Amino acid sequence: VPVHGMLTIRSSSSLILGVSLTNAIGQELLRQPAVDADLAVLDLSGLDAGYYLLIVTLQNGRIVERKILKY
């Protein structure tokens, strides 16, 4: 998923419990715990261009991972 500044995460199946973003070597750069909503927004404008891993934890126990390309 390419992104430049703000990243909006929406879940239609379950509430979002937390969101984190790691770099290519697994260092956690951003964390937004206990969102408890169907929508979360991360500001990626302060990060360098590159690939990141977005990890979304849902209330139904599911963990969703997506590759993010910050440009």
Write up what this structure looks like:
This protein has 71 residues and is mainly beta. Helices cover 0% and strands 65% of the residues. It has no helices and seven strands. The protein has a five-stranded mixed β-sheet with strand order 1-7-6-3-4, with no helix packed on it. It has a two-stranded antiparallel sheet with strand order 2-5. The mean pLDDT is 95.
Largest sheet: 5 strands, mixed
Determine Rg (CA atoms, Å).
12 Å
Structural class comes to mainly beta
Average pLDDT across residues? Answer: 95
Features:
71 residues, mainly beta, two-stranded antiparallel ribbon, 65% strand, globular
Secondary structure blueprint with pairings:
Elements: E1 2-3, E2 6-10, E3 16-22, E4 28-37, E5 39-43, E6 50-58, E7 63-70
Parallel strand pairs: 1-7
Antiparallel strand pairs: 2-5, 3-4, 3-6, 6-7
Summarize, please.
The chain has 71 residues and is mainly beta.
